[in-house]
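Lecture notes, unit on protein representations.

Consider one protein chain, 110 amino acids long.
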Amino acid sequence: MRFLHDALAKRKAARSKPADQGQLSCILPAKAGSGASTMALHLASGVARTSRKKTLLVDYDFHCGMAAFRLRLQPDFTFVDALSRAGDIDDMWEKLAYRWKHFDVLAAPQ
């Protein structure tokens, strides 16, 4: 009977653990040219290397998105394309996000 009790307790404990939801960090500039894009790139790279978890950098700067420029990327798709394809994003992810070293990048539209 003790075995059954322990098994039920383990099952209950496993169910009560929260799922790994991930984390969101936002880098907002105080003014243009303050280095927010550079900080975001370094943060994404550092998090990806140290955590060894999937990391995504989304460049949401519609005025002068610098992530693709800084990384010398010429992505075929942007953040806006990802939003418009939200229904089938799992199937399209390999085309929408550009893999750069340790993390994925969704570029801002040009």
